């Protein structure tokens, strides 16, 4: 049984080669094209089958993760590990409330770095917030910071994230190993290579990294690790975390 189909070639050279072959062999164009399709069909079938196998394996790995069920089965097999934990971050870890602030502080140093008065004032505010909301941590993030040496002042616009939990099942969201990375590097290289380029390492094996905030051209990346792998410094770290993306080491 024959089935008539039509197609359009986007290369005239292809049609010319087929026509030359038809003339040489004394065959019609449709017969030659039909023969070519019959030859390639088994190969295409194998490619399709292998692709389905790959999808099945990927789905299995996402569901069971890397070893005998360390991550619980996901509701949707198309989810990546990052998407799974990002959902947990939004629903179970991060408080729904955020606090935008605009404050200035005394700044006697000629350096752009945050001074003691600035840090202590912010820290007191964070501890007060986390206590009032019964939260595990509060994270202060500068989105714009300026220093005025003439008036001995420093400060700017900030956003404060409230963290209601740091663990979920056997996983620990390590806020004391946050990494600040250029968004450009993340897009071009991916997280692991971006960390290497910026010479950043963490003390524990990481399940995945989550982009929890971005300001200007930088992203704040949060590592998710197994709770048993969490360093003591992270488990006992301060409830008040201050991030100044505009100065290295702060």
Please provide a written account of the structure:
Strands 4, 5, 6, 7 and 8 form a five-stranded antiparallel sheet that branches. This protein has a four-stranded mixed sheet with strand order 1-3-2-9. With 250 residues, it is of the alpha+beta class. Residues 71-75 have low confidence and may be disordered. The protein has seven helices and nine strands, in the order H-H-H-E-H-E-E-E-E-E-H-H-E-E-H-E. Helix content is 39%, strand content 26%. A hairpin with a 2-residue loop joins strand 4 (167-168) and strand 5. The radius of gyration is 28 Å and the shape is elongated. The chain starts with 11 loop residues before the first helix and ends in a 7-residue tail after the last strand.
Layout of helices and strands:
Blueprint: H1 12-25, H2 29-64, H3 81-93, E1 94-106, H4 116-132, E2 137-148, E3 153-163, E4 167-168, E5 171-173, E6 179-182, H5 183-189, H6 191-197, E7 208-215, E8 218-226, H7 232-235, E9 240-243
Parallel strand pairs: 2-9
Antiparallel strand pairs: 1-3, 2-3, 4-5, 5-8, 6-8, 7-8
């Amino acid at each position: 049984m024959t089935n008539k189909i039509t197609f359009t070639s986007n290369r005239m050279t292809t049609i010319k080669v087929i026509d030359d072959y038809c003339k040489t062999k004394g065959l019609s164009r449709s017969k030659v094209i039909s023969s070519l399709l019959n030859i390639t069909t088994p190969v295409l079938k194998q490619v399709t089958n292998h692709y389905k196998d790959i999808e099945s394996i990927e789905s299995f790995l996402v569901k069971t993760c890397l070893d005998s069920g360390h991550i619980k089965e996901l509701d949707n097999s198309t989810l990546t590990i990052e998407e799974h934990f990002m959902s947990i971050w939004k629903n179970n870890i991060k408080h729904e409330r955020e606090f935008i602030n605009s404050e200035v502080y005394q700044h006697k140093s000629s350096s752009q770095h945050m001074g003691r008065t600035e840090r202590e004032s912010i820290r007191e505010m964070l501890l007060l917030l986390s206590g009032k909301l019964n939260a595990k941590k509060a994270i202060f993030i500068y989105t714009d910071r300026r220093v005025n040496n003439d008036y001995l002042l420093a400060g700017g616009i900030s956003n404060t994230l409230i963290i209601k939990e740091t663990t979920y099942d056997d996983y620990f969201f390590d806020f004391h190993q946050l990494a600040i990375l250029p968004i450009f590097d993340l897009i071009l290289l991916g997280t692991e290579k971006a960390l290497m380029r910026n010479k950043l390492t963490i003390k524990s094996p990481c399940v995945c990294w989550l982009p929890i905030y971005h300001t200007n051209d930088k992203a704040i990346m949060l590592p998710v690790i197994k709770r048993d792998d969490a360093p003591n410094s992270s488990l006992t770290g301060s409830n008040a975390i201050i991030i100044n993306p505009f100065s290295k080491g702060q």
